Amino acid sequence: MQGHDVLAEAQTGTGKTAAFAIPIAERVDVARRVVQALVLLPTRELAMQVAESVYSIGGARGVTVLPVYGGQGYDRQLRTLHAGVHVIVGTPGRIMDHIRRGTLDLSEVKTVILDEADEMLDMGFVEDIEFILSQVPTERQIALFSATVPRRIEVLAASYLRAPERVKIAQVTRTAPNTRQFFVEVPQRNKLDALTRILDLESPQSAIIFCRTKRDVDELAGHLQARGYTTAAIHGDVNQAQRERLLQAFRDHRAEILVATEVAARGLDIPDVTHVINYDIPDDADAYVHRVGRTGRMGRSGEAITLVTPREIRLLQSIERQIRMNLTPLRLPSPGDIAARRREAFRESLREVLDAGPSAAYTLLVEEMSETYDPLQIAAAAVHLAFESSGTPRLTPTPADAATDETGMVRLYLDQGRRKGIRPQDVVGALTAEAGISGNMIGAIEMLDDFIFVDVQAPAAQLVLEQAATITLRGQEVHITPARPRRR
Questions:
Q1: pLDDT, tens digit, 9 for 90 and up, residues 192-213
Q2: What residues contact 450, with CB distance under 8 A and at least 6 apart?
Q3: Is residue 208 within 8 Å of residue 234, measured between CB atoms?
C-alpha cells in the first residue's frame, strides 16, 4: 500500500493473491476506464483463478477485471478492452499479442504483479516478461511473488525492481498439513503393478498421477485404461480444447484419474483431489511441494504417495531434509488386502442402499422370486453377481438393434482406428467429455487399425448414440453405430 517494490517468497496457500489484490482494488481509480494494474501468471488456469479472486475483492468498488490468455477467442477480449478495463490478469504470450496488435495500452499502468515467477521462468517466459515490462511506465510499482527465490529470480529482481521490500513466509513444513505423505520402495520393472495395487486398495475418488515426461504420461494412461481405470491424460502436446474437455471430465468425476506432467498440471483449480501419486519421483523438493499441493487443499484431507526405486532413495532423503519432514514407508498391498478392502466397501454400499430404501423395481423382483427361492439365497446370488462379475444386471432398455451381452454392456462400433493415431484414452476422453457419460460406464476397448469396438453400459450407450454427431476423436470426425452381434 505504501508503493514500495516487493520481492516475496511465499508458497501456495499463504494468502499472496489477497496480498496484491487488496492494494490493487484500493488504489484503482474506478472513474478512469484504463488499464491501471497488470498481473502476469504462467498458465491460463491460474489466470482465470486469480482474475476471479481480484474481482471478488474489488468488484463491489466497481473495479473491472479481464482475464487474458491463449486458447480463448480474441473477440470477447477485444470487446472488453475497447470498452475499458481497470485490471488485466493474463499469461505473457497473449498479452504480448495484444500489445503488438495495438489493442492493449499499458501506458497508464501503476502496478505490475509477477505471480509464480519461478514457474514463468522455468517455462521460458523470461524474454516475454522483459518485453512486457518495457511497455509500462518507468514510474510504477512491481511486486514479484515466487515459491522459491533461486539465482535467476534474484537477477530478474535486480534488473527491474527498485530497492524492493523482501518478504519471506516461513513454514514449519512446506507441504499441506492435512496431507498424509507416504512412499513405497519398488523396483522399476514392478512400478505399474505396484501402482494398480495402490489404486485398487485406495479406490481414489479423484487422483492425479505425475510422470516425468510426455511419453511416460501417454504410456501410463494407456496401460491404466487397458486395465479398466477411467483415465484422462494431459501434457504439453495436448491442444487447449482437448485439455479443457479432459479437465472438465476430471472435475465432474467422469474420469477418476488424471495422468499429467508437472508443468501441465500447474495452476489446476481442482479443490477436491483426494490423492496425488508420484509415479516418477520429482527431481527436487520444490517440484515435490508443487505436486503434493494439488491435494489436501481448503482444509480437506488428502494423501500423497511416491513410488521410489532403490536407486532413488538418496533423492527421497534429500527431499525429506528440504521439506523438513519424513515420509511414512508404505507396505505394498497384497491381493488379500485389496480383496478385504473391496468387501468392506461393498458392505458399506449395501448399508447405504438399505438405509435409503431399495428401488421399488428391485423390491418387486425379489418378491416375485421369493415365491420360488429363499430370500437369503436371492440376496447371496445378487451379491455374487454384483461383486464377482464384470458387470451388474440392468432393468433398463437397451438401444434398438444393439449387440448386448449378459452383463448389460452394449458394443459400439467407431469407424476410426489406430492408423489415425487414436489411443484408448482418446476414446474415453471423447465419450466422457462430449457424450456426458461417466467413465465407469465404459468397459473393454478393442483397438484395430481402421476401427474400434467399445463396450458401454446400456443406458450410457443410448446417450452416446444420441450425441454421436457431435463427437470427434483427436479432432477427426467419427461415426458411431451399434456393433453387429459377435460371431460365436
A1: 888 988 998 888 888 999 998 8
A2: 415, 416, 417, 419
A3: no
C-alpha torsion angle, residues 116, 121, 123, 128 (rounded to 10)? 100
- Could you tell me the fold of the domain covering 6-168? Rossmann fold (3.40.50)
Kindly state the average pLDDT of the residues 125-145. Answer: 91
Q: What is the pLDDT of residues 410-456, one digit of tens each?
A: 888 888 888 888 888 888 888 887 787 888 788 888 888 888 989 88
| Alpha helix stretches (DSSP H) within 435-488 | 458-466
Encode burial over 219-252: b for 16+ CB neighbours within 10 A, e otherwise.
bbbbbbbeeebbbbbbbeebeeebbbbbbebbbe
Q: How far is CA 108 from CA 111, 113, 141, in A?
A: 9, 15, 12
- Do 279 and 194 contact (CB within 8 A), yes or no? no
**CA–CA distance, 429 with 442 (Å, rounded to integer):** 11
Please list the helix, strand and coil fractions of the chain in percent, rounded to the nearest 5, in that order: 45, 20, 40
pLDDT of 172 over the 60 cut: no
Q: Cell 478392502 identifies what position?
A: 341
Question: What's the CATH superfamily of 403-482?
Answer: RRM (RNA recognition motif) domain (3.30.70.330)
Domains 6-168 and 179-335 equal at CATH topology level? yes
**Furthest-apart CA atoms within the chain: distance in Å:** 89
3 CB-near residues (< 8 Å, 6+ apart): 141
CA distance linking residue 412 with residue 408, whole number of Å: 13
Written as nine digits, the cell of 72 is 480463448
Q: Residue 317 is placed in which grid cell?
A: 532423503
- Helices and strands (H, E) in the chain, number of each type: 17, 21
For the question of whether the overall pTM of this predicted structure is more than 0.85, the answer is: no
Gap between the Cα atoms of 69 and 97, Å rounded: 10
Nearest 5°: the CA angle 54, 57, 61 is 110
- Structure confidence at residue 103 (pLDDT): 92
Domain boundaries in the chain? 6-168, 179-335, 340-388, 403-482
Nearest by Cα to 449 from 483, 473, 417, 477: 417
* Cβ count near 53 (within 10 Å): 16
Is 286 exposed, middle or buried, given 0-12, 13-18 or 19+ CB atoms closer than 10 A? buried
Enter the C-alpha cell of residue 17: 493473491
Q: 10 Å Cβ neighbour count for 213?
A: 11
What pLDDT was estimated at residue 241?
A: 79
Residues 145-159, mean pLDDT to the nearest whole number: 82
Classify 179-335 by CATH class.
alpha beta
